[in-house]
Amino acid sequence: MQTKTITRKWLPPALIERLKPFLGTGIYFSANYTDWEAASAHASGYDSVLILEQVKQAMLKVKAGEAVFERDSVLISEAQHSFPVLAGLLRAAGESGNQLSVLDFGGSLGSSYFQCRDFLSVLPSLKWGVVEQEHFVNYGQGFLQTEQLRFFITIADCMRQIRPNVALLSSVLQYLPEPYNVLDELVSSRIPYIVIDRTPFGDQKGDRITIQHVPPSIYEAILPCRVFDKKKFLDTFLDRYEVIALFDGSDGTAVANGLGFTFGGMILRQV
Fold first, then answer.
1. Residue 38 is part of which domain span?
2. Is 5 a domain residue?
3. Are 88 and 267 in contact (CB under 8 A)?
4. Residue-level pLDDT, tens digit, the chain, 271 residues
5. Is residue 229 part of a domain?
6. What CATH code is carried by the domain that includes residue 163?
7. Exposure letters 50-81 (e unless 16+ CB within 10 A, then b)
């Protein structure tokens, strides 16, 4: 009997609904580790050249009009919008004379830009700066960069050149060894809005470190992954940003070693 059949037979319908994004994708989570270093010893990481190559091939098809956008190298042929993310971006633009300048931290080769650009095309001014690893940036600058879409290695470079009014962090913080350092840098830069999406949160006390297994159909990788203590995470912004909205992410709910967690997001505004 296939795993999906067993899952649907024995799990409650409400839980099945939350797990749907992962059923059939081959993505799963395993183990608990005491720290990031221990998890990294059992992982391949996101800096693999093979991952970049698969994302490159997918993005070239997007650029050629063969797909609307790509997510994690998977081509998406129909428009799909994260309306909470769009709400955060448009609110930031609305408070800046409909001028939108986005710092997209960990934005790959512009996945979110290509996903959102048609919806945001009504704005008189759109700038989108992706901050990524050097090999992603080199490719982006050489083959994808436009007047609207630019690529940077550091937050400081992006801040200086496009003066963002919103930072977007979509499915990235959980893969960083020091995510709170990145958040502190963004908060200290006094960006008016921060939008976080597709990030795993649990009710446990303290962050959990686990491993995410990604199948070859996406890109074969084993990644250290952090499940954030939601209260600790929100305390990072205490007295500096207010929570405008909390929302569920498109990735639903997952389980690692019997403990569940939920992917979600938030819109934060500087106070």
1. 27-270
2. no
3. yes
4. 343 333 344 444 444 344 444 444 678 999 999 999 999 998 876 656 777 887 777 887 777 777 766 665 566 666 677 899 999 999 999 999 999 999 999 999 999 999 899 899 999 999 999 999 999 999 999 989 999 999 999 999 999 999 999 999 999 999 999 999 999 999 999 999 999 999 999 999 999 999 999 887 777 788 999 999 999 999 999 999 999 999 998 888 999 888 899 999 999 999 9
5. yes
6. 3.40.50.150
7. ebbebbbebbeebeeeebbbbbbbbebeeeee
Q: Are 82 and 113 in contact (CB under 8 A)?
A: no
In a domain, 17, yes or no: no
What SS3 string covers the chain? CCHHHHHHHHCCHHHHHHHCCCCCCCCEEEEEECCHHHHHCCCCCCCCHHHHHHHHHHHHHHHCCCCCEEECCEEECCCCCCHHHHHHHHHHHHCCCCEEEEEEECCCCCHHHHHHHHHHCCCCEEEEEEECCHHHHHHHHHHCCCCCEEEECCHHHHHHHHCCCEEEEECCHHHCCCHHHHHHHHHHCCCCEEEEEEEEEECCCCCEEEEEEECCCCCCEEEEEEEEEHHHHHHCCCCCEEEEEEEEEEEEEEEECCEEEEEEEEEEEEC
Compute the distance between CA of residue 193 and CA of residue 182 in angstroms, rounded to an integer: 15
Enter the pTM of the model. Answer: 0.86
Residue 84 lies in a domain: yes
Domain count, the chain: 1
